[in-house]
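Batch manifest, entry 17 of 40.
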Amino acid sequence: MNAQRLTFEGIYQFFQTPQPVFLNQELTVCYLMSVLVRSESYGTELVQQLQQDYPNYRLSDTILQNSLRFLEKQALITSYWKKLEKRGRPRRMYHLRPEARSKAEDLAKLWWEHMGLAPADRSTPEPTPVV
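Output type: structure tokens
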């Protein structure tokens, strides 16, 4: 067996280029609420927005779909098909049910707190981490 040896150079390299963190279902639900309290979205856009706003985080399609199904079953979100301009096939759009806003904001707050975001950053599309 060829075991990799631990070196100080390797340790520094690890922190200079951290590995992506994959969201679990609990974090994904809260992340989705943080996006959907601001505007509707579709699956691919949700994944892309996560990578843009939080470059070290990733979201698998399986966790995303399971989380969206959970939120639909819990009646926090609904979905519909929409043909987007300059896009190929219609997208399944997800949006927050008005009567679920309070619960969604509570869940979104958990995400923002987990990510260390200041209250002023929470309503902006591209939040800034607290320094």
